[in-house]
TrEMBL record:
SUPFAM superfamilies on file: ISP domain (SSF50022)
InterPro entries cross-referenced by the UniProt entry: Rieske_2Fe-2S, Rieske_2Fe-2S_sf, Rieske_Fe-S_prot, Rieske_Fe-S_prot_C, TAT_signal
Descriptive protein name: Cytochrome bc1 complex Rieske iron-sulfur subunit
Domain (Rieske): residue spans on this chain: 53-142
Pfam families in UniProt: Rieske
Cofactor dependency: [2Fe-2S] cluster
Function field: Iron-sulfur subunit of the cytochrome bc1 complex, an essential component of the respiratory electron transport chain required for ATP synthesis. The bc1 complex catalyzes the oxidation of menaquinol and the reduction of cytochrome c in the respiratory chain. The bc1 complex operates through a Q-cycle mechanism that couples electron transfer to generation of the proton gradient that drives ATP synthesis.
Database matches in CDD domains: Rieske
Signal peptide interval: 1-26
The UniProt record lists the keyword Iron: yes
Keyword vocabulary terms for this entry: 2Fe-2S, Disulfide bond, Iron, Iron-sulfur, Metal-binding, Signal
Keyword presence, Iron-sulfur: yes
């Protein structure tokens, strides 16, 4: 008489767990794989020695006003004085959407900021975060 082997439920579960772990380890293996390409430079940054991309042209930023470029607000409160600010409102994290009548407006909840970033009308009480910008020729660049 021949006997057939029996497998317990515990054995099946244990075997499945070992198989899953082996598959996970094999999937994570990089043996023989090509090295990963370097990550691209972050927006607003450049490779060493390369020209820094302009956020805006100085002519595009009016005195007493400003422009919003991506996550950066650039204002010119007085002639030749360019200010960089975060476009994230300090009240609830919305993005400020317009600059008019000498104020930066967040339409989410009605906050207003002066051209230097200070809060002038709530509910926001904190100023917009400063971002370093500088003029290079006729361009305004980050940094």
């Amino acid at each position: 008489m021949t006997t057939s082997p029996t497998v317990s439920r515990r054995g099946v579960v244990l075997g499945a767990g070992v198989a899953a772990a082996a598959a996970a380890v094999a999937g994570c293996s990089t043996y023989g794989a090509e090295p990963a390409a370097p990550a691209p430079a972050a927006p607003g940054t450049a490779e060493p020695g390369a020209p820094i991309p302009a956020l805006a042209k100085t002519a595009d930023v009016p005195v007493g006003g400003g422009v919003i470029v991506g996550d950066t607000v650039i204002t010119q409160p007085t002639p030749g004085n360019y200010v960089g600010l975060s476009s994230t409102c300090t009240h609830a994290g919305c993005t400020v959407t317009e600059i008019q009548d000498g104020a930066i407006d967040c339409v989410c909840h009605g906050s207003k900021f002066a051209l230097d970033g200070t809060a002038v009308a709530g509910p926001a009480k904190k100023p917009l975060a400063a971002k370093v910008v500088r003029v290079e020729g006729d361009s305004i660049v980050a940094g």
